[in-house]
User: Fold these one by one.
Assistant:
Number 1:
Amino acid sequence: CQQKSTSSLTQTKQISATTTLLHQAAATTTTTTAAAAQTQQPPLKINLHTITLDELEQFLISLKQPKYRAKQVMSWIRDKGITDVDQMTNLPKNLIQLLKEYTVAGSLELVEEKISTDGTRKRAYRLFDGQLIESVLMPYEDGRNTACISSQAGCAMGCVFCATGQMGFARQLTPEEIFEQVSIFASELKSQNDDRLTNVVMMGMGEPLANYRNVMSAIKRMNSDLGIGARKITVSTVGVVPNIRKLYQKHENEEDNVPQVRLAVSLHCATDEERTALLPAN
């Protein structure tokens, strides 16, 4: 993420893909081959950052625990930002032991973090298959805390000025991988500063509207589970027109409708000819 933007469209700091963070992170980790990545499986433990209340209730019932314990656990995570089960003081010891055995506080592995003088935190996370993504937390003097979130590992848009675009496309992020980036920042702000995450911008790695279904699924949970207002969430795009239309279209199936988020279109140039030279997706 670059310095604070003067644009009234996003009212956030803009994202700079020309970063060395991922390269530094890649240098510190063992590179997995394509064959090895295909054989790897996601962690089998329950992810406390991404599990829903309903899912947690059913999980605890399967462990012969009272259903109401799910709300207690979720309150620690969402209201207090606590994901260490040892700190959940109103839970019985046997439940704490079960949670230690069957759950994990996140699946994203922090590989690299850089903190700027203004408090901005830029992170590289390793996914379960070895792919690397970026997330950024940006505090503002007016009290806003904005998370800049990735939607893909790599990017297929091929924008010539963008380091991520030159990396090529690896894969789509799942709704859980997108949501977890936000949940981690929200929890940390709660637990460390008794503060809250106020804004989310989908301006990290990848083209959000090229991963439409997973991004919208994650956004719904940012809104419902984390209480981030729809107008405080901005989706950025180079111009995936069919999905721009889908974003603001009223659908007969209510599940296909999404919160009324903000849309930011990366123009970069005033003419089609110039824009196509820089953004092949144009």
Note: The chain has a mean pLDDT of 87.
Number 2:
Amino acid sequence: ASLARARASHRRPPRVVRLRVVAFAREQLRLERVREGILARGRVVVLARAVARAAMTRARAQKSRLARLVIALVLARPVASSSPVESSSSCPAVGTKTHFGCDDGVRATRRAFDMWELARAWTPGFCASAPRACEKGECARSAAEPALTLHGLWPSYSTATKSDERDGCYWPQNCVKPSWYPSSEKWTYAAREIPSGAAAERIAPAWTRDGLGAHEWAKHGTCASWIDVEGTTRGMTQREFYNVTFALAEALGTPEVLLEATGSELSLADAQQAFGGASKVALGCTKSCVLLQVVQCFKRTPDGGVGEAEDCPCVGVRDSRYDNSCAERCERVRVLSPEQTGCHADIASRVASAR
């Protein structure tokens, strides 16, 4: 809105408004792909939280579905706080538990999801984590950049729901088609709906090169369509789910502290502070403390969009062995560079021997 007013008066926008423009708005991911007909003809700007709240208020008033769903695009980056690192007593079982989701979880538990988890991989760490990982397209020399890349956006529960499956249902998964879903939209996985172009390749190489989107839509994305237990209230279509997921990953980017630590290591506390502190993030590591994954938590807006960042629940996320193993076993976290993955060592040796 500030940019529009500045353009109308032929003035240069205030400096506070000239924030980093989301790369997707310059590339293939144009918001006109979203069916509701809201076109982003200009730039999508990463705004401060105060401006994001104002944008949400205006969006509700205008009943603009796209503007509400894509609040992800106007979230400010999480700011590392100067508060002390969270004590282990506030989440005593950190990184030690195993949790499970439940199939068709919204209907099975009679409870709609109330939060989102965004999971991103540290690609070199993933590529070095298993012998066959190097065979993945995301681990190719041209793709394995030192950066956080998209794993997935997951509908989740802030508190577990009792179920007959193991110790409870921590997230819904593998949801069926809700009654509201438009017949004109594909429900089964449609690769053509995934954003394409250079920005998408950089943000989500596992999706664009290895087909991870098929798994993510079937397991998690289908449940993004369910924002009430009856399946009658409109949630996200497959296309909207992909657009919001990619936009959020792009808007958040990779913290400078991780980029600076590439090829070496940093303290667990510093890694957590890069995302706002221990309560704001879960960090997954190998047994040798190599960073694999970062999980951040966000509120679910009333209409099913992605809202502001929030504390990740202790039970379900921060106590998860899968999500937060770094906090359980590591005082320092290793941030591998692409050269440290070992994926291209055989190629390098053949080149050297041929000289």
Note: The first strand starts at residue 102 and ends at 103.
Number 3:
Amino acid sequence: RAPGRPTGSETLPSENMPAPSPLAVASTSAPIRVEPGRRASRASPSVASSSLGHDARKKSAPGLGSLALSRGRLSRGRALVTRASAADAPPAIAPAHLRTTITPVPPEIAAGGGMLLADQPGMKAGFGDLTAHDFLRVDVDAPNLRVLCIDPPILTVDDFLTPDECDALIDAAASSGEMKVSAVGGVDNVNIRTSKTCTLDSPALADHPTKKAILAKAEALLPQLAGLSASKAAFKPPTSQSPYSFELPQVAHYRGGEYFKTHEDAFPEAVASRKGYQRRATVLVYLNDVAEGGATRFDKIQPPLDVTPRKGRMLLFFPGTKASMPDARTLHTAREAVPGHEKWISQLWVCAYAGKHAPEGKPPGPGDRAARRAAEKAAKKAAKKGGGGGGRR
């Protein structure tokens, strides 16, 4: 597995980079902990209104339509994302990888588990447009879908897997003999990860029902992936003709005191260019409850956003953008479980082709080396078969 980048990597965008399209940020002092049923102990900060950095001198971003974020209004204590009226000037928005600002939900809403989209019919279309513009469109009608951060989008779905599905995958991974220490080197070759991991491709795990459930539910949540797991290219590098694929799902086990230090899931720009694809979405499923510790912390969000492990809960975020660039705002940490406790997760990365997509019905362009070579080989074979001098005489 290719690791995300550790903190301090020179490939991270500069923290001093000016944001070409500033977004409103709500600022407080203590971390937000996402834990349903728990109320925030502090008062909500004021939330500034945002129009996604509208600049009348710029044209609207392609494909965004009339999306606007309305942060000044609250509905029963929830922030709203709405479509602007047709009379409003369309907003301009910088590419996600150039945005260094954050648009969070109010802290007390995040602490209460996030905004349940089912309770916010007025925000669905706008939020769906936002995810489609820079990331992958999310099915905003998915049951139990909650928004923990608007930009970058961070979402959860409780009961994504059933308790039985979680238990079955833990038992299968633990007894497979495939769990290995996940040594990932960071700056100065210091190990930044101490958990154990296995890939779900061994005979005991390749066809596991829970693996199939994760793939099917990920496809339902991200409609652009519909039918992907059934295709022959599901786990192959993406190409211009088959632009999306999955990395093989994994199971990771953290015992008390084990960790994965601050990192990104996306490939650095140079690595994505060499591979020809970028990690665009992280689908992480918690397979057990963790009583103490073990949260996934998003370090760039202020206050830091901690997502509490809960059995069957899925966490979705987008480490790479539609431009095949890392979104440094998704920097995160797998915090240590307290000794005496453990954490089991399953993680799935959605990858997307990083070159130019060939128009339908036309051959791939020069950026798609594998597809080009396959086309050349097929042409030579056809010429040889037809007596066209494609081979030696």
Note: The two ends are 46 Å apart (CA to CA).
